[in-house]
Amino acid sequence: MIKLKTYPITNNLILTNEILGSFINNFWNDVFINIKDTSHLLLMVKVHFTESEMGYKTLGNLRKVNFTDKELFIEYLSLRLGVVNDSYMSVPIYNITFSYIIKEGLAPIEDRTLLQDLSNKLVSFHTFNNMNLPKSMKPSDYGNILGTTVFETFTRYFVTTNKKVFQIDVYLEGMMNKVTILGAIDLSWIDTKLAHLEDSFTFKREIKKSTIYFLDGEITLLRKQILNVKPIKNLNVDNEMINDFYTFNIETIKLANNKLAPYLICAYNGLDYISSYANETLDQNRLFNDFISQLLSKVTL
Asked: I want to staple 157 with a disulfide (CB 3.0 to 4.6 A). Which of 84, 105, 139, 251 is the partner?
């Protein structure tokens, strides 16, 4: 689940490397320190400017970071800040927000290319039913666009790879796509954009019986997976009432190692009771042998 940590800014401060670094330090101490040994983060930083026309701006792409990557992350965002629009450096900021997702385990070194500019990165894919599908809503990320047709309510793209042809219907100015693989595969799905932050966006993919959430090319949640179940069968109704049944109950106690050990077994058939107690050593063989012996000796049971 995506979480947010927002720090308000007072005194009309301008965004500088020093200000940015101080709030990254705060985030590391407030949030990251509690999970530093067991988890890593998918992390992205955005700023809210005081001028309404500037709005929110994202400083970099989503990155996988371990707790020990703080200085590397500061350096990465400082470099990004040095190449963005000059207005970033002249308009006061209202707050800084860290968008993050906690992931179990530490991120391997090959996934932490913090200083690599991925604005033009190769499209990444995820596997579904042994097929590689792009983690993207851009028609061009599926392959070569063969043709485009504009309809009243949507634009249709035909896109091809070496083995597949996709029909991608783009609705609502790119907010929703209906994707169909043409031919014998018979697979289609809906992609819906949930948020847009410059080059980074969140969207969900509803495909078959699953809903998958993506944030900047990373799978953040597999929310729904419906499994097939067999229908409940009707039971045959017996016309004759059967009364020869009995109930059992086993009582237990918790031992020092937190394991449960039976100390009493009892049974009842509506007329007679059977009870078997364990001895002071909780001998399980003796307890159950005594109960079974009593059970077999009772004709009424």
From this structure: 139
| 18 and 99 assigned to the same domain | yes
Query: If you average pLDDT over residues 103-110, what whole number do you get?
Result: 83
In angstroms, the CA 154 to CA 174 distance is 9
Averaged over 79-90, what is the pLDDT?
Answer: 58
Q: Does residue 119 lie within any of the structural domains?
A: no
Domain end position, chosen among 225, 255, 287: 225
Determine the structural domain holding residue 62 and report its residue range: 3-111
Q: Is 130 helix (H, G, I), strand (E, B) or coil?
A: coil
Could you report the per-residue pLDDT of 123-140, keeping only the tens digit for each?
A: 788 888 778 899 889 999
Predicted TM-score of the model (pTM): 0.45
Q: Give, as one character, the DSSP assignment of residue 208.
A: T
Instruction: Tell me 284's DSSP state.
Output: H
Report the distance separating Cα 211 and Cα 219, nearest Å.
Answer: 11
Instruction: List phi, psi (to 5°) of 128.
Output: -140, 120
